[in-house]
Design brief:
single chain, alpha+beta, 9-stranded antiparallel beta sheet, globular
């Protein structure tokens, strides 16, 4: 039995062994299939990348900023349960480019990891697109929209023109920590709250806070779309006595101090061109209120110490 089995096994092996030219053809066929698979994967990756870029075209625009950088060195600020700001625009001067916009927003870093995405940057505010004024929100950790439509892929939401907001009114925007993450909120002119989205972050502290005016554009040259936004009284929520508190006074205006113990206004452009005061800037102390400032077209101040320290001299020195 073994004598019959072994030759038969050898015979089968000999029969399935391809002649040398056929083996070359088989190898070439396999290589060709692998090459076609590689090409298909390559073009699929290109299609996915282009789709993402088109979906998030505004996020990749060039930008000009008038930044209100708010101090976050104090534990009661860094670990607060909510942050809010009143925003106002008298005009919705509309950009001409389809991907262009102007906006004013409250923004937080919910983490301190490396970019991109490691800061968990999250924002809520007002935005003017070519079709008009609307509310919007964006967050790097990803969001679940509760109102409006998804924008920036799964990273943002925006309202339709005429939903909640209109020119000539003040609107309170808020980022609030909740058990399921963070809520991006807006309040209408009657102080009715609307939860716009849940931000997918369980962070219990912040690492940066901003109240900022921004222009975004995808055309060339820079259109410098007129932007008119007012920022009023940024606040944070304190657990005792369960109330909102005004942002703390600056302790110093000396730059380079770590941790930063002051709040300030400054300007910056992604093009590295000096935009202030020719195109954008700030006008602090609106109506004599140090916590009320304009940021946008027509602003002439490029750097400003917000909420300066209150200096009380002894009576003998007055």
């Amino acid at each position: 039995m073994q004598l019959c089995k072994s030759p038969r096994r050898r015979l089968i092996l000999v029969n399935i062994r391809k002649p040398r030219p056929q083996r070359r053809l088989a190898r070439a066929y396999r290589k060709g299939k692998f090459l076609m698979w590689t090409v298909k994967r390559f073009f699929t990756a290109i299609v996915i990348t282009v789709t993402l870029l088109l979906t998030t075209q505004s996020a990749f625009a060039n930008n000009d900023y008038v930044i209100g950088d708010l101090r976050v060195d104090l534990p009661q600020v860094r670990n607060a349960g909510a942050y809010d700001l009143l925003l106002y625009t008298p005009l919705d001067t509309r950009p001409s480019g389809s991907g262009d916009f102007t906006t004013a927003w409250l923004g937080l870093y919910l983490a301190n990891g490396p970019n991109p995405g490691g800061k968990q940057f999250s924002q809520v505010g007002l935005i003017v697109r070519p079709d008009g004024l609307r509310w919007f929100m964006f967050a790097e950790p990803g969001v679940t929209c509760h109102r409006g439509t998804a924008n920036y892929g799964t990273l943002g939401c925006q309202g339709s023109v005429g939903d909640i907001v209109a020119t000539g009114n003040y609107y309170r925007v808020e980022l609030r920590r909740v058990s399921s993450g963070w809520h991006a909120m807006i309040y209408d002119t009657y102080s009715n709250p609307y939860v716009l989205a849940t931000i997918n972050s369980t962070s219990g502290e912040i690492f940066r806070a901003q109240a900022t005016t921004e222009q975004g554009y995808s055309s060339s040259p820079n259109p410098y779309t007129p932007a008119y936004y007012y920022h009023y009284h940024p606040r944070y929520y304190v657990s005792a006595p369960y109330n909102y508190a005004q942002w703390p006074q600056s302790e110093t205006g000396i730059t380079g101090v770590a941790p930063k113990r002051y709040s300030e206004i400054w300007t910056w452009a992604s093009s590295q061109v000096n935009i202030c005061p020719t195109h954008y800037g700030a006008n602090p102390n609106v109506a004599g209120d140090e916590r009320f400032w304009f940021a946008g077209t027509g602003g002439i101040v490029c750097n400003h110490l917000l909420f300066p320290p209150k200096v009380f001299l002894p009576l003998i020195q007055r």
